Amino acid sequence: MFASGVVKLTSRCPAWWGLTALTYHYETQCLPTPASWFAHHLPVWLHKLSVVATFLIEIAMPPLFFMPARRLRLAAFYSQVLLQVLIIVTGNYNFFNLLTLVLTTALLDDKHLAAESGHSHRKKTPASWPKALLGLPALLLELTVAGLLSYGAVHCFGLEVDWEQYTVRSRTTFTFHQFSQWLKVVTLPTIWLGVASLTWELLRALWRWTQVWGWLGKFCAAVQLFIFGIATAALFLISLVPYSYMEPSTHGRLWTGAHRLFGAVEHLQLASSYGLFRRMSGLGGRPEVVLEGSYDGHHWTEIEFMYKPGNVSRPPPVVVPHQPRLDWQMWFAALGPHTHSPWFTSLVLCLLQGKEPVIRLIQNDVARYPFHKQPPTYVRAQLYKYWFSQPGEQGRWWRRQWVEEFFPSVSLGDPVLDTLLRQFGLQDKSPPRARSASSALAQALHWLRSQLSPLEAPTLLWGLILTVGAIRVMQALLGPRPSWWSPPAREERPAPKDSARGQAASAPNSRSSSSQTSRRRK
């Protein structure tokens, strides 16, 4: 998260430095949602203030993950939740944000989740003065951090409230050189902060191991601790190399052993550098590739994709947590010439051949594909610029303008197509080996695929998620209730005076009867 915020500034992108990135982001991102249209039309000052908040959440808040003060960690957690939820609402980024939310739950504790039994029924007792005195440094640390964050936001981004216009003005007040010097100062301490946190967790695990009883349990715990401890330390050491790419001087000062270890396992892609939206693309309009097919080369029909923008009257879809790979890659293909995306030539070839598995990547319902009865004779691609429609335009979500031809008109056996296939090594490929479908497992999987194929992937995924959620709810309702659900025990009322006298009078009788019984037994 820290690197994701830093690279937005180290890239020298004018949109990020000018705090105007979000005025383009919502309509130029890979797969917008319907909420993206509404977010795009928010006031410009609010877009700029949102960029300031993004920098604070991605750069200033991550170090709070390691703070000893509990409330600071919770503040860091909820800031990340806010960012990820807003991204989920305004953009289709598959399961990326959900994974981030799962990772951030490590900042929570049992007390915050109310996992302790009977926690809600315990009476709050005033803390003793030694405990209150020990909590004073934590309170001072929290106030100091809150003050530094507020001062830093106001000072670095020139925040000013315009009471006449009811807006908040913002601008970047620091230079690239100043930011680079600051990055040199803080990058290495962030690494040592991670080292200290990892060391503390390993020591805690070692302490828990000493509490294990029995030689067999202690031996098994020791093996687990050794394996996971070595693996965690090694992976952390490997990740320091790509993490330090954002600051060259820190990268050069890293331990040489870390560089050698990273080089030895680099081909496994265990760790890599990270930077989301390093530079804002589509500043002059969203580039979009539109495929077209024809039977005669004169009358062309657009090939509509399920998720990416095409028809200007169709609203953007919501596909989270699905990852439509082809629609996603079409966005990257539009950022450059088709020669930068060799797979696009293979896509055109498959459409000319009418391969159904490829057609299902474009339209899950083959009947909606305009050439489902017969493959097109010619295929070409046009490049358009797309913009969100204005609020007054009825029935339109987009407006577009033709830019140029993206891929020339080709047919099977066309010399241009054959040349491109040879250039990219896609021609004369040996056919895939036929797999036997005689086994019961293969037949079962084929039947399952045929039953689920009519469903769109987002519908299927949400159906599975809601089913699991319903099962968990039913288990919680029908299963044994936790102890903290039971009502508090009733207090015993003092007995009335008459009953107390009756019990006192019956006491001698009970003693005499017990003595008579003992004499009879004797």
TrEMBL record:
Gene Ontology BP, a term: protein maturation
Membrane topology classification: Multi-pass membrane protein
Region of interest: Disordered: 483-522
Lipase maturation factor 1/2 N-terminal domain ranges (all copies): 1-114
InterPro entries documented for this protein: LMF, LMF1/2_C, LMF1/2_N
Ranges of Low complexity composition bias in the record: 510-522
Keywords, alphabetical: Endoplasmic reticulum, Glycoprotein, Membrane, Transmembrane, Transmembrane helix
Annotated compartments: Endoplasmic reticulum membrane
Biased composition (Basic and acidic residues): 489-500
Stated role: Involved in the maturation of specific proteins in the endoplasmic reticulum.
Membership in a protein family: Belongs to the lipase maturation factor family.
Name this protein carries in UniProt: Lipase maturation factor
Organism listed in the record: Rousettus aegyptiacus (Egyptian fruit bat)
Lineage: Eukaryota, Metazoa, Chordata, Craniata, Vertebrata
